[in-house]
Amino acid sequence: MRFDLTDLRLFLAVAEAGSITHGAAEAGLSLPAASERLREMEASGRVRLLDRDRRGVTLTEAGEALLHHARLIMSQMARMHGEIGQIAKAVRGTVRLLANTAAMAEFLPARLAPWLATHPQADIVVKERQSADIARSIALGFAEIGVLSDLVETTGLTLRPFVTDRLVVVAGRDHALAAMRQVRFADLFGQPFIALSEGALQDHLDAQAARIGLRIRPRIRLRGFDDICRMASAGVGIGIIPETAARRCRKSMQISVKRLSDDWAVRRLSLCTRSDAELTPLAQSLLRHLESGEDARAF
Question: Keywords on this record (predicted)?
């Protein structure tokens, strides 16, 4: 039974995605190449690793065993590269970080800048994901550090407080919402929406709408929170964004800001890892820096 690192990375990606197609894309392989590698892995071990059907793939008992060992191997490889890079100083180190939309746009840039400035040999690969996907990816070893909401399942992971993220509704100053004392998500349907073009936050809002049997139909989709506030101030419609972004925009735009009263609209964001022992020295350094931020102390 001979598996190389590309095989293991592919298998981890497929296991996380529950799909050979999506796993192949994550691993940077074409679908035919990925399918052939998986077939060769099963032929080499003389055991079926995946059960395939029209909805995707699930792991067999042998697949679960391989997943466990693949995680350990990839984690140890990352640690080895990190330690060698720290010693040699000539090899660049990379930390993989996953975060939801609010953390990506509002909190991480200011936190990451000083650390990167003092670690010239370090790179950070940041990807945006929904909190549930972040938890799964950290558990599978696809990234060292995650920033996610405490509303998702994180059993077996190590969490540290980061910041509190509250979602608010933004509208024009003369909008009817400005006079309301309390705003619930369900109250907003029938209103013209200004939505994000893509991202974890918009996926989260769409999921909450679907949960109560409704659907968000935006008039326009935009890429940033400032753009949503600008449209709202012009009377185009309403948007839902993090409170930090709304406060910033209110300084220069004519908008009304109302907090959503739904429980899920207040999210405590946490730093998430599998375990400190598995982190590379570089990742440990970044984790300590993120944990020591002013917002984290006030959490």
Answer: DNA-binding, Transcription, Transcription regulation
In this structure, the answer to whether residues 173 and 223 fall within a common structural domain is: yes
Indicate whether 47 and 192 sit together in one domain. no
The candidate with the shortest Cα–Cα distance to 261, out of 186, 170, 178, is 186
Q: pLDDT confidence of 299, banded at 50, 70, 90? A: very low
Q: Of the residues 55, 73, 91, which one is the last residue of a structural domain?
A: 73
DSSP strand pairing (255-259 vs 193-196): unpaired
**Taking a C-beta distance cutoff of 8 angstroms, is the pair 80, 109 a contact?**
no
Provide the domain limits for residue 47: 5-73
Domain boundary pick from 49, 73, 97: 73
C-alpha dist (Å) from residue 4 to 7, 8, 10, 11, 123: 5, 7, 10, 11, 25
Please state the length of the chain. 299
pLDDT tens digits for range 84-125: 665 555 456 899 999 988 899 889 999 999 999 999 889 999
DSSP helix/strand/coil, 278: helix
Q: List, as one string, the DSSP characters of 252-264.
A: TS-EEEEEB-SGG
Burial 243-277 (b: 16+ CB within 10 A, else e): bbbbeebbeebebbbbebeeeebbbbbbbbbbeee
Angle at 104 between CA 147 and CA 197, to 5 degrees: 125
Q: How far is CA 61 from CA 45, 54, 66, 74, 107, in A?
A: 13, 20, 9, 20, 41
**Same domain? 39 vs 180:** no
